[in-house]
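Note to self: the last two entries modelled the partners one at a time, which told us nothing about the interface. This time every component goes in together.
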Amino acid sequence: MAELLPLSDALSELVADGDSVALEGFTHLIPFAAGHELLRQGRRELELIRMTPDVLYDQMIGMGAARRLVFSYGGNPGVGSLHRFRDAIEHGWPHPIEIEEHSHAGMANAYAAGAARLPCGLLRGYLGTDLMERTRVAPITCPFTGQQLVAVPALRPDVAIIHAQEADRAGNVQLWGIPGVQKEAVLAASRSLVTVERVVDELEPRPGGVIIPGWVIDAVAEAPGGSRPSYSHGITERDNDFYRRWDAISRDREAFVAWMEEHVLAGVHAG
Amino acid sequence: MSGGNGLPTAGEVQTVVAARQLAHARSVFIGVGRPSTAAILARMVHNPQLVLVYESGTVGAKPRHIPLSIGDGELAETADFVVSVPEMFNYWIGAGRVQIAFLGAAQVDRFANLNSTVIGDYAHPRTRLPGAGGAPEIASSCQEVVVIVPHTRRTFVPELDFRTTVGHGDGPGFRERLGFPGRGPSAVITDLGVLEPDPDTRELVLSAVHPGVEVDQVRAQTGWELRVADPLPTTEPPTDAELAALRELVSR
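The predicted structure of the combined assembly is written out below.
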């Protein structure tokens, strides 16, 4: 049963140096507050897993928290490059990182396989591309039809961290709007934390609402505004201006570090 | 650049021509940028029933503004329905339920294969690009693909640095051998003209130039010996209605 905890306590309990951690949220509901708290707690050597690294992993990679990155699209949506992600891969700054890259379909199926506790996911993908040689997939033949398919190994993160709009006091969670791959990430992981905009007495059913029961979650932490500059549908709006501004902030190493020190490391944690 | 009543820019012509591809389509898969602008324009001027599908899971989105990201709130608010990422890629894209896909890329080769992964060597890239995203499975499974890219020698290369996404592979039979459900790229729309695969060889052939563009200009911006249709038509210039709608959309 999910325990309601302050964010800093939840993270120090659930995440250790060297863990594989998936902070998910497909453009929407990205758990920025939790990621920033991991940086303040000085976590290192993480295997960071995320379909779209986005600005959050750009920040975590640039601050040297990542040993390895598993991803499928490393851009700043609609803006351009993630400069810290590029600097790490192109120049090994602040240190080299290992990468494992997939397509969206591959990674989504890898999460779904992890959630189902199956060893691999199956898809019609990767075939004919150079990705086949560069990532962890293997061709497989359907035993019934002889069709050529590709198997992608299940993702089983040590910890999944997601953000949602609401939880009740028993730690049942509801999110709505673009659901991404968050339910799969929580069910694929060994441990999980959900940060929420607010804790309510009773969850009110929402159109398209996704419920994740408290009995598959380890901890719930209240973090109002915890997805900013991403957004929580119906509560906050995506800060598109910030995503545009990030391009200039992140281009230069020193300007980036100064910005992170001022806005993230010195920040009072949300617990 | 262009003022209020000025002549259309090359980019505007590219967007307008791309939008016309959707005049009779049922559904289109789009990323952000010019493809998204073209699809929204198509709904405004040609095809109000067109179903816009974004990979964030928003199906039937009706944005009034050009979204910055594929996950902007307006897309979810206006969608007919919203699905998870695994559902999007398995039930809708993988199953071939989306008719046309608009894709961009950093490099295109003569068989309309695409690179969006690296420039240079994979292990030590000169430029690390964002990576595959949804493109490989979109290109293998959507019924038809339209590639939308700027026409420069940097983009139109003799050999890709990395094949992220299969267009027509190495030529005839390539897609069929891999069992791809979709027909692959039917057109590449650039700011200079339109290229279409030869039905027999599958090699891209310049099939139209935009108004005012010379063939030599296109050849100079293509990194291989470009084949050119004879006779070579010129695309219809944007109508006043198309141009006014596009400029109004961009200014919102």
